[in-house]
Amino acid sequence: MSSHRLHDNLQSAYRTGHSTETALLKVHHDITEALDRKCTAALVLLDLSAAYDVIDHTILQTRLEHSFGVTKSALSWIKPYLSDRSQCVAIGMTTSEGKCLTFLVPQGSWTT
Q1: Which of 47, 64, 77, 87 is the most exposed place for a label (fewest CB within 10 A)?
Q2: 107 and 57 in contact (C-beta within 8 Å)?
């Protein structure tokens, strides 16, 4: 990602020398600067921790391709991860019947 400069200039996650602290400092700086110029400033916070629990896989794939330009080998790597997935629950020696996942992004080693 870094060698091909695929990160947004303001992205803090997964980058050396960038952190939550640097992201917060940037937001604070931008708000303070706007207020100093007598501009209105607003901060909207959005918790995306469960965002993938409700996303439709087909819509996600379409958006990745058409809105973000993810194509060819990258898209062919992502599509199988989101397609024809099922999940079951195992407790002791008992395993539930598999259920097709159309929304959740699978996590963990027991998802197939």
Answers
A1: 47
A2: no
Beta bridge partners of 87: 99
20 contact partners, CB below 8 Å, separation of at least 6: 12
**The token pair that represents 43 in the structure block:** 């901060």
Tokens found for residue 9: 């200039």
Taking a C-beta distance cutoff of 8 angstroms, is the pair 11, 18 a contact? yes
Q: Which helix (H) or strand (E) holds 46?
A: none
Write out pLDDT tens, residues 56-100: 778 888 888 998 888 888 888 887 777 777 888 889 899 999 888
Q: Supply the pTM of this predicted model.
A: 0.39
Predicted local confidence at residue 28, as pLDDT? 94
C-alpha closest to that of 96 among 109, 108, 82, 86 = 86
Q: Where are the domains of the chain?
A: 1-45, 51-101
